[in-house]
Amino acid sequence: MAPLVRIQNFVVSTDGYGSGEGQSLEHPFGHADPETLMSWAGATAHWPNRTDPGGTYGLDDYITRDYANNVGAEIMGRNKFGPERGPWENYDWQGWWGEEPPFHTPVFVLTHHPRPSFSKGETTFHFLDASPKDALTQAFDAAGGKDVRIGGGVATVREFLDADLVDTMHIAVAPVEIGRGEKFWTGPNEYVERFHHEQIPSPSGVVHNFFWRR
Amino acid sequence: MAPLVRIQNFVVSTDGYGSGEGQSLEHPFGHADPETLMSWAGATAHWPNRTDPGGTYGLDDYITRDYANNVGAEIMGRNKFGPERGPWENYDWQGWWGEEPPFHTPVFVLTHHPRPSFSKGETTFHFLDASPKDALTQAFDAAGGKDVRIGGGVATVREFLDADLVDTMHIAVAPVEIGRGEKFWTGPNEYVERFHHEQIPSPSGVVHNFFWRR
Fold this sequence. Notes:
Oligomer: homodimer
Low-confidence stretches of chain A: none
CATH architecture of chain A: 3-Layer(aba) Sandwich
Order of helices and strands of chain A: EEHHEHEEEHEHEEEE
Number of domains of chain A: 1
Helix content of chain A: 10-25%
Mean pLDDT of chain A: 95
Number of strands of chain A: 11
CATH topology of chain A: Dihydrofolate Reductase, subunit A
Structural class of chain A: alpha/beta
Shape of chain A: globular
Strand order of the largest sheet of chain A: 5-6-4-3-7-1-8-11-10
CATH class of chain A: Alpha Beta
Distance between the termini of chain A: 17 Å
């Protein structure tokens, strides 16, 4: 099976926002509350940040445990990596994820201000000023024959979709309104001409949207 | 996370049968047609027997691609391994699965007539005359810290459930009636006292039932 470009476990509100307004160090999702966006995932047994042995093993857990399945690299936008804009004042900031980031693969951060690569736990962060297509070439070189995940945020995901570089996409619609911020879509109909589409409601209240290239 | 005992991708008819009547070399599911039971899985991109590059990437594909995810060994009943009953006439029979069985792990076949282990592709078959509990001890020893899947058929799956040895269970109800044969259940209500239960209909017509221990 040829390796894929996957958007996966990307969460938006019922009104189509992937993030709120005003990202900052304290508020990575701006005015939106990441806990309400992610509570469906946080309840599952395979949620990467889980510290106790409980959690559910239903539909939502299939989704969270597939997160790393056959993924060899991730590409993310700079705003997913951190709140700073423009040239780096220094290289102290190493991401939101502490000593063991949940990626466990090479991660390519798209930025107009590259900085040296560094490793944190099992994850190595690289910084690229590159087009989506060129970034994919580098990510696949690093992915060892596995898939490449496009990790977010909204602008990065849309850039890869606009360039028609995405093979499969999972968008989870969480039962919350954000009202303003980073808009991902008006609804799944934006993509049904280019992709097959399945919509699967979960008992948790989230609605999973699966897309794959026609 | 402690390794689990998982029943997974076990398919039954709407009237609760896992297999028809009269298993034989030509008819591993007896009078029931395995293609109608398995068509939901066969349509997916990750179906192990797929030979062309197509296939779906929706809900059913999450299920098929999770088949091998963190599984380190399988336990199966003798009737899943082959149609012969009683003492082995010889050891020519090596399973239904050709040169590359889809397990890729140690497989423990429960039988009152043990025979020598053998390997086929990446799968090694062992033969045990053991209780479910003792078989699990050996399977976990071989699983390298990963989970153990209880692979079927009906009698074997029920034996592990009756002994309360199962942690998670996925039963796919296919939209077909079989009428007679190996009955698995009258319905999911048989297990809701011991397990949490989610029922998720798929666009393919199959209904996925997920259970995890209370």
